[in-house]
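Risk register update: the risk of archive-format incompatibility is retired. Evidence:
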Amino acid sequence: DKEILMKKRLTSALALTLCVLSSTVMADTATEVRQVILDDLAHANQELNQDPMRLSKDGSKEFFSSGGLLNHLDRTSGGNTFEMFEGSIKHIEVVVLVEGQAAVAHFYQEAMMKPTGLPVVPNYRTRVTQVFVKEEGGWKIRAAHWSPLMGGAGTSQTVIK
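Archived output:
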């Protein structure tokens, strides 16, 4: 009887441990994606460009906040560069699609920027949806949609140069 009771307790403890671990893993995906978004913004603020390695090895399909048709970006497209960029992000929400493999993030981005060779955008305010995939050991952007907020401006360019 003691042996059966010990096995039941061990099985219950193992089941509880697996539940805790699986919920921790889910929280980690959302936390990792949030951090990637913040790191990408920090890179733009500091380096005055967008890191091409933020994109999936297969590129990213994107609608820009300036309007226009669907664009395909890849790591060789050359990301946007800026003469000035001061951005911030608010209200990041991450929906985990496949744990450890795919997630969608929604957030607001605000900035004052001057894309290289283009007019200043003093009131950049946009809603962002980005689709992330886990590849090459990190979270990469596979698709995005940038949509200006009422009273805000999109970027001054419609294509990547």
